Amino acid sequence: MYHKILVALENGRADDTLVPHIAELARRLGSELLLVHVADGWAARNFDQLKLAASAEMKADQAYLDSVAARLRSAGLKVTSELVLGNPPTGILKTAEARACDLIALTSHGHKLIGDFFLGSTIDKVRHNTTIPILVVRAGSETATPFA
Known about the structure:
Blueprint: E1 4-8, H1 15-29, E2 32-39, H2 42-50, H3 56-74, E3 79-85, H4 88-98, E4 103-108, H5 113-119, H6 122-127, E5 134-138
Parallel strand pairs: 1-2, 1-4, 2-3, 4-5
């Protein structure tokens, strides 16, 4: 059913909740995983226009993606990764469509209306602008264990 799953990683603790869920889903369905992190710092947002060198943050993000991908591959899963630059919702949507993903997996932090107003909601922007199904896993879920 889901052949290619885009897994939006934050490079933070929320990923410890998302990755085990998605790894198990991929294992059961034989799905390919596309790990994506959207670097959105100043250098990332202006990288192409100003022909900048990769920032320390971008290099750390790529190393993180490589590390998670290696752990998942060692568990027998088919995994690719991509560091995307710019606006997170836009980057997730464009990548999911360009790579023909049929599921987008993200974490929710459980902000309330006021928190979403001030912090923005990547999930909200993604869900309103795609027809690709979305799986949302609540960050910090007690049922999740870090992927090893």
